[in-house]
Design a protein that fits this description.
Helices cover 33% and strands 24% of the residues. The protein is of the alpha/beta class. The protein has 2 domains: 326 residues, ANL, N-terminal domain (Rossmann fold); 103 residues, GMP Synthetase, Chain A, domain 3 (2-Layer Sandwich). Helix 2 packs across helix 3 and helix 7 packs across helix 8. Bound molecules: 5'-O-[hydroxy(phenylacetyl)phosphoryl]adenosine. 5'-O-[hydroxy(phenylacetyl)phosphoryl]adenosine binds next to helix 6, strand 7, strand 8 and strand 12.
Length: 434
């Protein structure tokens, strides 16, 4: 499979490091001059842009958290006047004010280059017909992927998310070959097709580019089986750009990171200490070419591992492991640390469970209660009571073996758990309301 931009994607790692250092130096000078927040932070540390002499000197720079971006809402972290900003997006925060990010013409050019790159790595070519089923709007997913896929020369159908029957009609009539959306929406599309008696396997659809939320290997296998496609994962976040930060190649063995435009580090989530390659920790990203909204050492809260060993595809860009958890989605239940993804992985191992679940945490007196509500295949649901009880017990045991806690397992009929056309919400923590 040809590489979209071999000059950068297959660059020898020593040259890449030189490029990164040059770009880091200009970014630090750029933010020092233009963003009061960074100038103050650097002055407080007694660090001047000229002190950045090696890539390791990135550690002299402050970590940036979401709060800094919130406190300067809406434009306080912009490095250029609004006249030079040609696009604004915002992050998908659920409550309060969003984080607002801006792009110059140059930034949009970089962005479409990088989304073209990940689409190409996933296997999209100019001959593809790509259905964009991401939300268009302030979310970076829709527009970000859209321009990259156009740049690549493929045909784009900007369907947007939702109206699943119409998505399926387009897929059938337009001959869609690639689908772009969140993994949970892909599954929902499969489900609606199955119900409507549409045989997706007989359609030209062959490839999926999924991102915007975590998805494990169990979820990938389910999507690949039900849609009859190859499913690839891509990752990004609004604060550093949007999609295009990293994405899988056809070998599906980690997400190649756009290291020519970002500097990636992994740190210990509590101490902030830099961890060696191969250790799991929080991903930290410094933008190297952003003009309007550069960030230094942004704390993503996403947990991953970086692997810089060569990939069979020939790209020299290091890979990050699929993000399965965030430092802030960890639940503490009866004193035990639990990631929702651990429960999901346990569920995906059991035959008969549909990939729709919700984890409900509540407090009864001083005790935390954990309930896992799952959809099961129709046959199981209509089975005799004794079989259902045995099944429930089996699921509870599997969950216990993974997280060491007893969960109340509730089986619900197929179709009862809320579906989403964007990012799925798998956890309801009622304790927060107390
Ligand atoms: O979700 C950008 C994006 C859109 C990426 C479309 C890929 C495709 P935000 O709304 O700012 O931006 O949310 C960013 O979503 O910090 C992760 O926690 C999570 N996330 C995004 N992609 C993945 C992924 C977009 N492939 C936050 N795997 C990030 C796991 C992901 N988590």
């Amino acid at each position: 499979m040809p590489v979209w931009n071999p000059e950068y994607e297959t660059m020898p790692r020593e040259s890449l490091a030189e490029l990164q250092l040059r770009r880091l130096q200009s970014t630090v000078a750029w933010v020092y001059e233009r963003i009061p927040f960074y100038r103050e932070e650097l002055d407080r540390r007694g660090v001047k842009p000229r002190d950045i002499r090696s890539l390791d000197d990135v550690r002299l720079l402050p970590l940036t958290d979401k709060t800094a971006l919130r406190d300067t809402y809406p434009y306080g972290m912009f490095a250029v006047p609004l006249e030079q900003v040609v696009r604004v997006h915002s992050s998908s925060g659920t409550t309060g004010k969003p984080i607002v990010v801006g792009y110059t013409k140059g930034d949009l050019n970089t962005w479409s280059e990088l989304t073209a790159r990940i689409a190409s790595a996933a296997g999209v070519t100019a001959a593809d017909r790509v259905q964009m089923a991401f939300l268009y709007g302030m979310f970076t997913g829709g527009w970000g992927m859209h321009y990259g896929i156009e740049r690549l020369g493929a045909t784009v159908f900007p369907a947007g998310s939702g109206n699943t029957e119409r998505q399926l009609m387009m897929m059938q009539d337009f001959g869609t070959t690639a689908l772009v959306c969140t993994p949970s929406y892909a599954l929902y599309i499969a489900e609606v097709a199955e119900k409507a008696g549409i045989d997706i396997h007989s359609l030209p659809l062959r490839l999926g580019l999924f991102g915007g939320e975590p998805s494990g290997e169990g979820m990938r296998a389910e999507i690949e089986r039900r849609l009859g496609i190859i499913a690839t994962d891509n990752y990004g976040l609004s604060e550093v750009m949007g999609p295009g930060v990293s994405g899988e190649c056809e070998h599906q063995c980690g997400l190649h990171m756009a290291e020519d435009h970002f500097l990636f580090e992994v740190v210990h989530p509590e101490t902030g200490e830099t961890l060696p390659e191969g250790e799991e920790g929080e991903l930290i990203i410094t933008t190297l070419t952003k003009e309007a909204f550069p960030v230094l050492r942004y704390r993503t809260h996403d947990l991953t591992v970086i692997d810089a060993s060569p990939c069979v595809c020939g790209r020299t860009l290091a890979r990050m492991r699929k993000v399965r958890a965030r430092t802030d989605d960890m639940l503490i239940i009866r004193g035990v640390n639990v990631f929702p993804s651990q429960i999901e992985d346990a569920l995906f191992q059991i035959e008969g469970i549909e990939p729709h679940y919700v984890i409900i945490v509540d407090r009864e007196g001083a005790m935390d209660d954990l309930e896992v509500r799952i959809e099961v295949a129709g046959e199981i649901f209509s089975d005799v009571m004794a079989d259902m009880v045995a099944f429930t017990k089996r699921v509870a045991e599997r969950i216990h073996s993974v997280i060491g806690l007893h969960a109340k397992v509730t089986l619900v009929e197929p179709g009862t758990i809320e579906r989403t056309v964007g990012k799925a919400r798998h956890v309801i923590d009622k304790r927060q309301a107390l």
